[in-house]
Design brief:
The complex is a heterodimer of chains A (358) and B (563).
Chain A (H helix, E strand, L loop, with lengths): L4 H35 L4 H32 L6 H21 L7 H31 L8 H22 L4 E2 L4 H4 L11 H23 L1 H11 L1 H6 L4 H27 L1 E2 L5 H14 L4 H23 L11 H15 L15
Antiparallel strand pairs in A: 1-2
Helix pairs in contact in A: 1-12, 2-7, 2-10, 2-11, 2-12, 3-4, 3-5, 3-10, 3-11, 4-10, 7-8, 7-10, 8-10, 11-12, 11-13, 12-13
Chain B lengths: L5 H23 L2 H4 L4 E3 L3 E2 H20 L4 H28 L11 H7 L10 H17 L3 H19 L1 H9 L4 H7 L7 H21 L1 H7 L2 H25 L1 H27 L7 H16 L11 H23 L4 H19 L5 H4 L23 H24 L1 H11 L1 H6 L4 H27 L9 H14 L4 H17 L7 H15 L8 H6 L20
Antiparallel strand pairs in B: 1-2
Helix pairs in contact in B: 1-3, 1-4, 3-4, 3-6, 4-6, 7-10, 8-9, 12-13, 13-18, 13-21, 13-22, 13-23, 14-15, 14-16, 14-21, 15-21, 18-21, 19-21, 22-23, 22-24
Classes of the chains: A mainly alpha (358), B mainly alpha (563).
Chain lengths: 358, 563
C-alpha cells in the first residue's frame, strides 16, 4: 500500500491529537495546582497528612504490584485474578482475626496483638498461595504457549470465578475486621499524627519487599526466576526447572498479595467479595508505572500512584472548583494508567519492551 | 495392565480428590441448596441435586477413562472415585455436626445437609458416599457404551436439562393455546413431570436416532445446490417466523428478557468486529454504551435533563455518531499500544466513564446517580398492540442486529476485513505487508464503538431511563463473554452466546448471583478446550491455526514461542 495523502493527513491528525491530549493534562494539573495553592484553603498539615496517607496506601499497592510485575515478567501474562487473590487473603485474615478476637487473644496485650497480626498474615498467605497455585494449575498452565489473548481471557474468567465463589461462600455482605486496639493508637511523636497501623503497614511492606529483593537477587531459585523471565527456552537448556520457577513466582506474588490483603483490612477495616477489583487494577497501574517486570519499579510505581491518588483530587481539582473532588480519585488513577500506557509504556524504570520480545 | 495395578489406583485417587473438591465446592458455594428450590423433575430431583449428579457422572467417566482395562476395573475405578467424591460430602456433614462450619461458610446450613442426605439428617450421612459411588459407576459404564448408544443418551440428557430449565416458560406458552392439557401433563408449575421427563427422553433420543438412521443431514448435503435450497429455505423460514412471533406468545416478562437478548446480540455483533475480526480486546465497551444511552436520554427525555425533546428516531443517529467520535477520541491515543495493554487501557476508560457519569461534576448534565428518566419509547403503541412495550425494542434490536450482521459479513471479505484478520494474526507481519496499523485498528474500534452506542441508545429506550448504575463493567464483560463463548468472528456464535449467557440467566433471576460464577468458568473452559468458540466462524477454522488436535489430554494452541 503506498502512502496516500489521506493516510499522511490522518497520521498528522493523530500526532496533533496526542499533543493536544498531553497539553490538556498538563494544563489541568498545573493550573489546578496553582489555583488550589493560591487559594490557601489548605494548610501544610493537611498536605502532609494527605501525603502520608498516600505513602501508606502506596506501599500496599507496591506489594500487590510485585505480583503483577513478576508474573508479567516471567509469563507476559496480566494476571487479572491477582486482585482477587488479594481479596482472598483479606478474607483469610478476617477469619483468623475473628477467631482470635473470640478467644480474647487479639486485644489481650500489645504482644498478643502483634502475634495475632502475624497469625492473620500467615492465614492470609496460606489462603492466597493455595488459591493462586490452583488458578495457575487450572487456568494458566495449559495455556502457556497459546496466543496472548487466550490466557488473558482465561485470567478474566478466573477473576470472576474467585469473586463470585467468595460471594457464594460468604454472601454479598461486607465483613468488618475486628478492631486491633493498639494499632488505632497514635505513635507518640510531636510534629504529626501517625497511627501505629500506618507504621505497621509501611514497615512490614518494606520488610517484605526487602526480603523479596534479597531472594530474587541472592538465592538460587531467585536466579532461576530471573533466568526464566529472560528466556524460557535457554533457561530450560541450562537445566533450570522452568515450571518450578513459574510456580514459585506465582506463590511469592500471592504471598505478598495475601499479606497486603491483611494490611488493607487493618487499614480500611472491611472486606467483601469485590474488594480486590479496584486495588487490583490500581496495582497493575503501579506496576506499569514503575516499568513492568521491574521489581524496584513496582515499589516506586506504587508509592507514586498512592501519592497522586491521595493528594491529586485536592491538589489538581479543588482549585478548578470541581465539586466533591474525592469522588474522582479513581478517575485520576485510571487516567494516570492510560497516560502511562500511551506515553511511556516502559514505565519509570523499565526498559522498552518491544513487540517482538513481548 | 502392563504397568501393574498401582497406576490406575493413583489415577482413581486423583480423580476422586478432584471430584471431592468439586462436590464440596458446589455445596459450600451454595449451588446445591439454592438451586434445590427449583425442581428439574417435580418430586424427583432438584436442580441442585442435578448439579451434583452431573459432577459425579463426570467423575465416574473420568475415572473410567484413566484405566484402560476390563469392565470390572472400570467399575472399581469409577466406584472408588465416586466414593471419595461423595465421601467428602459425608465428611462435611459429620464435620458440620461437630463444629459450626456456618460461622465461615454461609451455605453449610442444616438445609444443605438435608438436601445432601435426602432429608434424613445426620443419620443419613452415609448417603452421599453411597450415592456418589453408584452414580459414578453409571458414569464410568457410560464411557464404555458404544458411540451409537452414548450419543442419543447424551443428547437426551441435555434435552432433559433444557426442557426442565425452561419448563415454566414452555408451560406458560402452551397454556394459552389449545395444548393446555398436554402442558399440564408434561410440565409441573416448576420443572417437568415424571411423565414429561420420560416423553422428552424418548422423543429426543428417538429423534436423534431417526436422524442418524436416515442420514438426513448427509442426504440434504448431497443434494444438488438448487434442490438443497428447496429444503433449507423453508427450514430457515420457519426459524425466522418463530423468531418473529416469539415475543407475542410468551408474556411480558419473557418479552423483556428476549428484548434484552436481542440487544446483546446486537452488541455482541458489534464487538465481534473489534474483537473477533481485528483481535482488539476491548474491556471498555460500556463507555460507548454509556455515550449512546446518555445521548438518547438527553435528546429525547421529557424530564428536566432533556435538552431537545426529540423523537427516538432523530436521536439514535446522533447516539451512534457520538459513540463513534468518542471511540475515535479514546482510540487514537491507545491504539498504538499492544494487545493486552490495550485491554487494560480500555478497562480504565470504561471505569473513568462510569465514575464520571455518577459524579457530582457532571450531575448538572447527566443527573448523577438519579439519572435521566422519562425517556419515551420509539413507537407510541397502546397496551395490547403487538408493538407494545419491550416488543418494539425486540424488533428494533433484531433489525439492527441483522443490519450489523450484514455489515460484518460483507466487511469480512473486503480489503479492510482481510487487513483486520491479518492484524489479529500478527501485527508485525501485517505492518510489513503494508497495513496501516493505527488506522485499520481505529476503524475496527470505531465501528465497535458505534454499535455499542446503538445498543446503549436502544437500551435507554427499553428501560425508559438511564442511571449511572446502569453503566457497569459487567456490560463490557457480558459482551466479551458472548463473543468469546460464541466464537470470535462468528455471527451465529454471537446469537447463540447471547441466548445462553444473557437469556438463560435472565430467566433465572433468583439464581442471578451465580451468573458470573458460571461466566467465569465458561470463559476458562472455552479457553482451555475450545478457544475458537462454540460456533467458530468458518474462516477462523480455515485461517487461524489452532492446533487443538495436538494432544489428547489438553489442547495446545499456536506455536511454542521458543524455536
Amino acid at each position: 500500500m503506498h502512502t496516500s495523502w489521506v493516510e499522511r493527513l490522518t497520521d498528522l491528525a493523530i500526532i496533533g491529537f496526542l499533543w493536544a491530549f498531553r497539553i490538556a493534562v498538563v494544563l489541568v494539573v498545573v493550573v489546578g495546582s496553582l489555583l488550589t495553592i493560591a487559594s490557601g484553603k489548605y494548610d501544610l498539615d493537611t498536605w502532609v497528612s494527605l501525603l502520608w496517607r498516600g505513602l501508606t496506601l502506596g506501599t500496599v499497592y507496591s506489594l500487590l504490584a510485585l505480583g503483577y510485575t513478576m508474573v508479567y515478567g516471567i509469563l507476559r501474562l496480566i494476571n487479572f485474578a491477582h486482585g482477587d487473590i488479594f481479596m482472598a487473603g483479606a478474607f483469610g485474615g478476617y477469619f483468623v482475626a475473628t477467631g482470635l478476637a473470640a478467644i480474647g487473644f487479639l486485644n489481650l496485650n500489645p504482644l498478643t496483638s502483634l502475634l495475632s497480626v502475624l497469625m492473620m498474615m500467615a492465614g492470609a498467605v496460606i489462603v492466597s498461595v493455595s488459591l493462586a497455585l490452583l488458578v495457575e494449575r487450572i487456568a494458566y498452565r495449559p495455556l502457556r504457549y497459546a496466543p496472548r489473548l487466550v490466557p488473558l481471557i482465561s485470567a478474566i474468567g478466573a477473576s470472576f470465578v474467585l469473586e463470585y465463589a467468595f460471594r457464594g461462600f460468604f454472601g454479598p455482605g461486607t465483613y468488618v475486621y475486628p478492631p486491633v486496639d493498639i494499632l488505632n493508637g497514635s505513635v507518640p511523636i510531636e510534629f504529626m499524627r501517625i497511627k501505629w497501623v500506618d507504621l505497621l503497614i509501611i514497615v512490614s511492606a518494606v520488610g517484605m519487599m526487602g526480603g523479596l529483593f534479597w531472594y530474587v537477587q541472592r538465592t538460587k531459585m531467585g536466579t532461576a526466576i530471573r533466568a526464566v523471565s529472560e528466556d524460557k527456552a535457554a533457561a530450560a537448556l541450562m537445566g533450570i526447572d522452568v515450571n518450578r520457577a513459574i510456580v514459585t513466582t506465582f506463590a511469592i506474588g500471592a504471598a505478598m498479595a495475601g499479606a497486603a490483603g491483611v494490611l488493607w483490612g487493618l487499614y480500611f477495616h472491611q472486606v467483601y467479595f469485590f474488594t480486590g477489583f479496584i486495588p487490583g487494577i490500581k496495582a497493575f497501574t503501579a506496576a506499569v508505572l514503575g516499568g513492568i517486570g521491574n521489581i524496584p519499579g513496582a515499589l516506586i510505581g506504587g508509592l507514586f500512584l498512592g501519592g497522586v491518588e491521595s493528594v491529586g483530587p485536592t491538589l489538581f481539582l479543588d482549585g478548578l472548583n470541581v465539586p466533591s473532588p474525592n469522588q474522582l480519585k479513581d478517575v485520576i488513577a485510571f487516567t494516570l494508567l492510560v497516560l502511562v500506557l500511551v506515553f511511556r509504556p516502559s514505565g519509570i524504570l523499565g526498559e522498552r519492551i518491544s513487540g517482538q520480545r513481548a | 495392565m502392563m504397568t501393574g495395578t498401582s497406576i490406575p489406583w493413583r489415577g482413581t485417587l486423583r480423580t476422586g480428590l478432584i471430584g471431592a473438591v468439586v462436590t464440596v465446592f458446589l455445596s459450600l458455594v451454595g449451588i446445591v441448596d439454592v438451586f434445590d428450590a427449583r425442581p428439574l423433575i417435580a418430586g424427583a430431583i432438584s436442580l441442585g441435586q442435578t448439579a451434583l449428579v452431573l459432577a459425579l457422572l463426570g467423575i465416574g467417566y473420568m475415572a473410567a477413562r484413566s484405566v484402560e482395562a476390563s469392565r470390572v476395573q472400570v467399575v472399581l475405578a469409577a466406584a472408588g472415585a465416586g466414593l471419595i467424591a461423595g465421601g467428602a460430602l459425608t465428611l462435611l456433614i459429620l464435620l458440620g455436626a461437630v463444629i459450626d462450619i456456618r460461622a465461615v461458610f454461609l451455605h453449610a446450613s442444616p438445609k444443605l445437609y438435608g438436601t445432601l442426605t435426602l432429608g434424613l439428617g445426620l443419620g443419613g450421612s452415609w448417603i452421599p458416599a453411597a450415592l456418589g459411588a453408584a452414580i459414578a459407576i453409571v458414569g464410568g459404564l457410560g464411557s464404555r457404551l458404544p458411540v451409537a448408544a452414548r450419543r442419543p443418551l447424551t443428547t437426551a440428557l441435555v434435552a432433559l436439562l433444557l426442557t426442565g430449565l425452561f419448563a415454566g416458560i414452555l408451560r406458560g406458552a402452551m397454556l394459552t393455546t389449545s395444548l393446555a392439557d398436554l402442558a399440564r401433563l408434561l410440565f409441573a408449575p416448576l420443572g417437568l413431570t415424571l411423565l414429561g421427563a420420560v416423553v422428552v427422553v424418548v422423543v429426543v433420543a428417538g429423534g436423534r436416532e431417526l436422524l442418524t438412521y436416515t442420514r438426513l443431514r448427509d442426504r440434504v448435503r448431497a443434494l444438488p445446490p438448487l434442490r438443497r435450497r428447496l429444503v433449507t429455505w423453508p427450514a430457515w423460514a420457519v426459524v425466522a417466523l418463530v423468531v418473529l412471533v416469539l415475543p407475542q406468545t410468551l408474556g411480558s416478562f419473557v418479552a423483556l428478557v428476549i428484548a434484552t437478548v436481542a440487544l446483546y446480540v446486537l452488541m455482541g455483533l458489534g464487538l465481534n468486529i473489534t474483537l473477533g475480526l481485528a483481535g482488539l480486546l476491548d474491556l471498555g465497551f460500556v463507555a460507548f454504551f454509556a455515550v449512546g444511552a446518555y445521548t438518547v436520554g438527553l435528546l429525547t427525555s421529557t424530564s428536566e435533563f432533556g435538552i431537545a425533546d426529540w423523537p427516538f428516531w432523530a436521536a439514535i443517529p446522533f447516539a451512534v455518531i457520538f459513540a463513534m467520535l468518542f471511540g475515535a477520541i479514546l482510540g487514537l491515543p491507545i491504539l498504538s499500544i499492544r494487545g493486552d495493554y490495550l485491554a487494560i487501557a480500555t478497562l480504565g476508560f470504561g471505569e473513568i466513564v462510569r465514575l464520571l457519569a455518577g459524579s457530582d461534576l457532571l450531575k448538572a448534565f447527566l443527573g448523577g446517580p438519579q439519572g435521566i428518566i422519562h425517556i419515551p419509547k420509539p413507537i407510541e403503541a397502546p397496551a395490547g398492540d403487538f408493538l407494545y412495550g419491550p416488543n418494539q425494542i425486540y424488533y428494533i434490536a433484531l433489525v439492527c442486529a441483522a443490519l450489523i450482521g450484514f455489515v460484518a459479513w460483507r466487511l469480512r471479505g473486503s480489503r479492510l476485513g482481510r487487513a483486520w484478520l491479518s492484524i489479529r494474526e500478527d501485527e508485525d507481519v501485517a505492518e510489513a505487508l503494508g497495513v496501516n496499523l493505527v488506522q485499520t485498528k481505529l476503524l475496527a474500534y470505531m465501528l465497535g464503538a458505534a454499535f455499542a452506542g446503538l445498543g446503549g441508545g436502544i437500551f435507554s429506550a427499553l428501560i425508559g431511563s438511564i442511571f449511572a448504575s446502569s453503566i457497569q463493567l459487567f456490560v463490557s464483560i457480558n459482551v466479551v463473554a458472548i463473543v468469546v463463548v460464541g466464537g470470535m468472528g462468528s455471527i451465529p456464535g454471537a446469537v447463540l452466546g447471547a441466548v445462553f449467557l444473557i437469556g438463560v440467566p435472565e430467566l433465572f433471576r433468583e439464581f442471578s448471583e451465580y451468573r458470573y460464577l458460571l461466566y467465569g468458568f465458561a470463559l476458562i473452559a472455552m479457553m482451555l478446550y475450545r478457544p475458537q468458540g462454540i460456533m467458530p466462524a468458518k474462516f477462523a477454522e480455515r485461517e487461524v491455526h489452532l492446533d487443538t488436535t495436538a494432544l489428547t489430554g489438553g489442547p495446545v494452541m499456536g506455536r511454542p514461542r521458543s524455536p
